[in-house]
Amino acid sequence: MGATRETGSDAPGEARFLARLALLAVLGSLLVLVLALGEGGLMVLGAGLLGVVLCAAGVWWFVAHRGLLRVIGALLVFLAPAGVVVLFAYQGLWLTALILVLCWGVALTCARAALRRSRPERPQVATAAARPARPVLIMNPKSGGGKVGRFGLVERAEELGARVILLDPGAPADVAELARRAVADGADLLGVAGGDGTQALVAAVAADHDLPFLVISAGTRNHLAMDLGLDRDDPSRCLDALTDGEELRIDLGDVSGRAFVNTVSFGVYADVVQRPEYRDDKAGTALSLMPDLLVGEGVRRLDSLVDGAPLADQQALLVSNNPYFSPDEISGTGRRPRLDDGELGVLGIRVEDAAQAADLAVRGSQSTGLTVLSAHRVEVTVSGPAEADGPPEVAEDAGTDGPPEVAENAGADPSAEEPGTSGAVEIPVAVDGEALRMPIPVVCTLRPGALRVLVPRDRPGVVAPPPAIDWRRILDLAFGRTVRTAPR
User: Fold this and answer.
1) Sheet containing 434-439, strands listed edge to edge, beginning at the edge strand earlier in sequence
2) Within 13 Å, how many C-alpha atoms sit on residue 300's CB side?
3) Lower CB density within 10 Å: C or N end of the chain?
4) How does pLDDT run across 367-399, given as a tens digit for each residue?
């Protein structure tokens, strides 16, 4: 990752002060425990840890099993934290627990603030952009529950001089081909008001022709818009880029010849979204299928090569266009601090039983069940029965309909866009939320700086993600020792 740089006695005084406050808060929590030893201090720690373990085990039993075990799991999820609270109240330990929580809250807040001030985020460089003369915007009227009509995006875009191609929800079109025709007709900017799957298809055409690309946050989740700092509550503000914009160069992902802007998912999630019923009942479909996907007979496991290094027997694998700040992307709340670092993020999950689920809940990214990496190339295949006999039944009889994200990203002909050859062994893949099937091995790479994105100068969603806690660096900052950090 390059040479290290050093900071030390020249670190900002504010960062040093905050680092010392963080250490004092940690010492304060230890002091509280020591003073409360005779009054249940260890019970606070033990009960809290036990509550987390039981809750995690309950989640596993609820998700991975049916019948009585599922019922027991559901009860544990609710009763474990409630039991801890009741115990604290009954034993008179709530004040000790509250002080410990406050101490650790202060410690973490000060530690993150110290790290942020000692090594400020390097902002992504934006360059001045000329106003496009012939912008063409593709809009999906059903995307995001009808945001195109609700926010008057067509009228606003046409007022600003853009040509709008409005998709017909009843007649799916090849949006990539529409974009190519627009380029042939002289378009000097391509944009999309729709889901991230549609964004990716048009972004690939823009990158191929080195044209600026405009993201309009009219989808449901708008992950790309979020990481670009765009206003996701009012997509009409994205159109301000047409008159007062600046340009960012970002990376574009590639999965076996198909572009992606956010993530490619393999394994459990990709299997679930293949099912036609997932569109109307996400939670019910997932709960129905999870036991077979996680612990059933003939369960498919994923093998991969991450920059040539093996990562075997994973239940789920997520590959992202640039790494997310933390594994929170599993829940859809994670953010990517940058989109121009030239690396894929890789997240592998393998949880076989309740004990491993508890280990994951307690240890997080340090758990053996979670692998967090970055890479330039990821090659994914399958192990076990699926490789010899084909995908398991859960994916084998899956329909072509996908989740709502697929429906709102309407515009691509799946048979035309999905790479692959007849007769090849295929696995389910979710590309930016769209349910596809691809022949193995599925190869994920990155095209660094391939996409020119036109964004408004005023982007209310731009935030600096909190740095990961590194207590060794906190000690170095607090005592003025040399801090070695990798450049970003």
Assistant:
1) 370-375, 344-349, 316-321, 263-267, 426-431, 434-439
2) 27
3) N
4) 777 888 899 999 999 875 444 344 444 333 333
Please tell me the predicted confidence (pLDDT) of residue 241: 94
In this predicted structure, the answer to whether residue 469 has a pLDDT above a threshold of 60 is yes
Taking alpha carbons only, the member of 177, 192, 60, 207 closest to residue 139 is 192
C-alpha distances in angstroms, 167 versus 190, 215, 247? 15, 16, 27
Is residue 291 predicted with pLDDT exceeding 70?
A: no
Angle between helix 13-35 and helix 41-64 axes, rounded to 10 deg: 100
Environment class of 258 (CB within 10 Å of its CB; exposed 0-12, middle 13-18, buried 19+) = buried
Tell me the C-alpha distance between 319 and 251, whole Å.
14
Enter the tokens of residue 268.
């459990």
Percent of the chain whose pLDDT exceeds 70:
74
Q: Which residues are bridge partners to 344 per DSSP?
A: 321, 375
What DSSP letter does each residue of 99-130 carry, written as one string? HHHHHHHHHHHHHHHHHHHHS---PPPEEE-P
Give bridge partners of residue 7 from the DSSP assignment.
483
Enclosing H/E stretch for 201: helix 196-208
- Say if residue 441 is preceded by a cis peptide, omega within 30 of 0: yes
